[in-house]
Specification:
The radius of gyration is 23 Å and the shape is globular. The strands form two sheets. The protein has a two-stranded antiparallel ribbon. It is about 55% helix and about 10% strand. The protein has six helices and four strands; from the N terminus they run ββαββααααα. By secondary structure, it is of the alpha+beta class.
C-alpha cells in the first residue's frame, strides 16, 4: 500500500527486458513485494496477448478482403458541389506493386515480413551476425516508438525500408548499393521528420543515429 508512482526510482532498458527500480519500506519482504507488483502486470500481459491474437485474425481477414477487392473492377462515384452524384463510371484494376501501408494491411503483418526477411540473412561470419542483430534492433526501435513521435503510417513505411535493407544484403554488390542506399535515404527522411519537441523523440532519434551508420558500414554502403 505504501508503494506509489513516486516510489519508482528508475526505468532502464536491458536488451529485450526492462529493469524497474522501486524504493520500498524496510520491513515488508522483497518476495511479497515482487509478487504483488508483478501479478497485475502479468494479468495485463495475458490480456494484451489475447487482444493481439484477435487483431491478427482480424488483420488476416481484412487482408484477404483487400486482395479480393484489388482484383475486381471498381466503380468510382463522386459527390460534386451541389451534393448531386456524379457517376464517373471509371473502372480500374489495381495491379503491380500494391502499397498497402496505409490500407487495411496491419502493422503486425508488416512487422512479420520484416522479421522473416532479416531471418533469411546468413550469420556465418561475425559481420553477418552483427548485421542481422543490428537490423533486429532497428526494427525494435521503430516498432516501439511512441505514436506521437512516429505515427503508424510512418512506422509502417520505415519498417518496409528495413525489410529492403535486409533484402539488399543478399543482392549482388551493384544492386545492393543502389537498393540499400535508397532504403537508407528513405529511412533518414522518415525519422528526420520526427517532431523533436516531443519528449519521447530523443530515444528514437538517438538509437536510430547509432544503428544506421553501423548498418551502412556492414553493408558497405556509400551514403
Amino acid at each position: 500500500p505504501d508503494i506509489s508512482f513516486d516510489a519508482i526510482q528508475g526505468i532502464e532498458k536491458k536488451g529485450n527486458d526492462v529493469l524497474v527500480t522501486i524504493e520500498v519500506p524496510e520491513l515488508p519482504t522483497k518476495a511479497k513485494i515482487e509478487q504483488d507488483f508483478l501479478k497485475p502486470y502479468e494479468e495485463r500481459v495475458k490480456q494484451l496477448e489475447a487482444e493481439n491474437e484477435q487483431l491478427k485474425l482480424r488483420s488476416t481477414d481484412l487482408k484477404d478482403i483487400a486482395i479480393a477487392l484489388a482484383n475486381k473492377p471498381t466503380q468510382i462515384t463522386q459527390l460534386v458541389g451541389d451534393g448531386k452524384v456524379n457517376d464517373q463510371s471509371q473502372n480500374f484494376n489495381v495491379g503491380g506493386n500494391f502499397n498497402a501501408t496505409n490500407s487495411v494491411v496491419g502493422l503486425q503483418d508488416i512487422s512479420g515480413n520484416v522479421t522473416n526477411a532479416i531471418n533469411q540473412l546468413s550469420d556465418a561470419s561475425a559481420d553477418e551476425a552483427n548485421l542481422k542483430e543490428l537490423l533486429f534492433q532497428l526494427q525494435a526501435v521503430l516498432e516501439t516508438a511512441d505514436e506521437a513521435v512516429l505515427p503508424e503510417a510512418d512506422k509502417a513505411d520505415a519498417l518496409a525500408e528495413v525489410k529492403l535493407l535486409a533484402e539488399a544484403a543478399q543482392k549482388p554488390e551493384a544492386e545492393k548499393q543502389t537498393m540499400g542506399a535508397k532504403a537508407m535515404r528513405s529511412l533518414r527522411r522518415i525519422v528526420g521528420a520526427v517532431p523533436t519537441a516531443v519528449p519521447m523523440a530523443t530515444t528514437l532519434v538517438t538509437e536510430f543515429n547509432k544503428l544506421v551508420p553501423a548498418i551502412a558500414t556492414l553493408l558497405g554502403l556509400v551514403i
